[in-house]
Amino acid sequence: MTPDDDKAIDYFGKDNPLIRLKSKQSIKARRAMFDVFMDKMKATEDSKVIDIGVTPDRTLADSNAFEQFYPWKGRVTATSFEDASFLEDQYPGMRFIQTDGKALPFEDKEFDIAYSSAVLEHVGSAADQREFLLEMMRITKRFFLAVPNRWFPLELHTFIPLTHWLPKPMHRRVLRKLGKDFWAKEENLNLVGAGELLSLFPRGSDVRLHKHRLLGMPSNLVAYGTSP
Prior knowledge:
7-stranded mixed sheet, two-stranded antiparallel sheet, 6 helices, 28% helix
């Protein structure tokens, strides 16, 4: 995914009234997943944390939820290919570094924990997703990555049900016919299910899976573990 003003970001189409409704529900889900983060990652006030993929949006309730919840903000480095430098003012002590969205300008294992939410599905092909995960694991000792589940009935970027269960080329053709050209591009939306997510990690990786449920169904997937 390449920067394109406000069109290459997860809140594309945020004027849609359904986006506001989704955001209010999403903040609850992100709070629940944050609680899982704190339980599984055992973060402390000494932990050096990086949040990969923050947003410049300041209008939606769930934007930069991690920064809202995390108690030791002065130990957080946030990064994005977009300019979210306002976070340094909003949360004194936090550091923001803008990157190109691919290579991260950090040393190997510079951080204790990497956090990333709702980013992997926007980085491109499966090969691009693997590179993203490798780069994430390179710079950190432990990781926590959350994504929407492809097999949840409602696709929450387009608000179109079930069609995303089709083979991906067919799904993209349907999106183009429905006028959803932005989301029809692989570099903007490439959903994964549980098996597909786990297959992106290098063979033998220490990675575990948590499923966040909505109405009894897994709506979000969390992959967490220790970097090689």
